[in-house]
Design goal:
Blueprint (H helix, E strand, L loop, with lengths): L1 E8 L9 E8 L4 E5 L6 H8 L7 E6 L2 E2 L8 H6 L1 E4 L11 H11 L4 H14 L15 H13 L5 E5 L7 H16 L3 E5 L3 H4 L6 E6 L2 E5 L1
Parallel strand pairs: 3-8, 3-9, 6-7, 7-8
Antiparallel strand pairs: 1-2, 1-4, 4-5, 9-10
Bound molecules: adenosine-5'-diphosphate and magnesium ion.
Length: 221
């Protein structure tokens, strides 16, 4: 599902590499925790995977697509295969919960009853059906992150990327969000969760642990 071969990322005017010679294979259906201290390169790695950044060197494949060879027109096609969840939710706060989730499908050309039904279904899944018409910005942090999870899941992408998804949440809301990611994994998704929080690691049994330190990757047993 994800294959990195000797990937390095240097940001301009930075002495050290954000990622250095990173190779990683994530087969379909794996649940992977990407750990390591702040500044280790976790966000950079995830951003490469949804083509928000380009690598300085090395090769990246996501679901068979070679990211280095994507034309700008192919980027939306890649993004449809990848659901992304951020620490700070990144919702459109003035729009309704329904619209925040529906937007992903509208962009992909979906409309009408099919769209409405699918959005309702995924809002039921994250237990927010009764908040569908509420402005997203008025919800609690835990609820906003569940909207963000719904938005990531609505197009049924095979790959889910979550960057510190529990970083702004209290323990109960964090557990709830992790439970939704585990459910998505059980339904077949490949999941990559970046977190520097050791408490979060205990929430998913049997997950693979991959650790970054100063841009270099080490695997933990
Ligand atoms: N847009 C950027 N421009 C310059 N340096 C960056 C940028 N984004 C990240 N970095 C640097 O790259 C390194 C890795 O950052 P990041 O991937 O955000 O780590 P993490 O998510 O593990 O905290 C850090 O030294 C950070 O300062
Ligand atoms: Mg980060």
């Amino acid at each position: 599902m994800v294959l990195l071969t000797r990937v390095s990322k240097l940001y301009p005017r930075r002495r050290s590499a954000a990622l250095e010679d990173v190779s990683l294979h994530v087969p379909p259906g794996q649940f992977v925790y990407l750990t390591g201290p702040s500044g280790a390169g976790k966000t950079t790695l995830l951003r490469l995977l949804f083509a928000a950044e380009a690598p300085t060197s090395g090769q990246l494949r996501v679901g068979g697509a070679e990211l280095g060879r994507l034309s700008p027109r192919q980027v939306p096609t890649l993004r449809r295969k990848v659901g992304v969840i951020f620490q700070d939710f990144k919702l459109i706060e003035r729009r309704s919960v329904f619209e925040n989730v529906a937007l992903t499908l509208r962009v992909a050309g979906s409309q009408g009853n099919g769209l409405t039904e699918r959005v309702r279904q995924v809002l039921r899944q994250v237990d927010l059906e009764d908040k569908a018409q509420v402005a997203a910005g008025t919800l609690s942090g835990g609820e906003q992150q569940r909207v963000a999870v719904a938005r990531a899941l609505v197009g049924r992408p095979p790959l889910l990327l979550a960057d510190e998804p529990t970083g702004n949440l209290d323990p109960l809301a964090a557990t709830e969000v992790m439970r939704l990611l585990v459910e998505a994994h059980a339904a077949g998704a490949t999941v990559l969760v970046a977190t520097h929080d050791p408490k979060i690691l205990t929430l998913v049994r049997g997950a693979r642990l991959v650790r970054l330190e100063a841009g270099r990757l080490t695997e933990e047993p």
